[in-house]
Amino acid sequence: MEQKSRARHDSFAEQFTFVLHEHWSDILQVAHRHSPRVATLFQAATPTGLKRVDGGWQIQVLAKRVTPREKLSQPRDNEVLAQAIRAWAHSTAQLKLPRITVNLEL
């Protein structure tokens, strides 16, 4: 029984990650309203995965290395991106997502 549940979650995680990847520019437009700097820094980033953690979702995002001048202010920038993902999902598909965190991989 547990294997079926895990397989279903893995399939959902892959599909949701694909949807995020396909609509990344739309998500960055939402992020741009809150922080143009964050939207610019994440333009070259790509969502790579989704994990369930403590009742919420942790979305992995692969970003190019940033120069010291463009330094990310973690965790604030990650939170801006997480809120943009939630707002995008709610506005485009009326999805109410659980708490989202973004795990940035450089």
What is the CA-CA span between the terminal residues?
36 Å
| Number of beta-strand segments | 3
Computed over alpha carbons, the radius of gyration is 14 Å
Write down the secondary-structure element order.
Answer: HHHEEHE
Main sheet, how many strands, which sense, barrel?
A: 3 strands, mixed
Mean pLDDT reading: 86
Helical fraction: 40-55%
β-strand percent reads 15-25%
Strand order of the largest sheet: 1-2-3
Count every helix, treating DSSP H or I runs of 4 or more residues as helices: 4
Give the CA-based shape: globular
The stretches of 5 or more residues where confidence is low (pLDDT under 50) are: none
What structural class do the secondary elements suggest? alpha+beta
Description of the molecule:
By secondary structure, the protein is α+β, with helices and mostly antiparallel strands. The chain contains four helices and three strands, in the order αααββαβ. It has helices spanning 2-22, 24-34, 36-41, 76-93, and strands at residues 46-53, 56-62, 100-105. A three-stranded mixed sheet has the order 1-2-3, with helices on one face. A hairpin with a 2-residue loop joins strand 1 (46-53) and strand 2 (56-62). Helix 2 crosses helix 4. The longest helix has 21 residues, at 2-22. The chain is globular and about 40 Å long. The protein starts with a helix and ends with a strand. The relative contact order is 0.17. The model has no long low-confidence stretch (mean pLDDT 86).
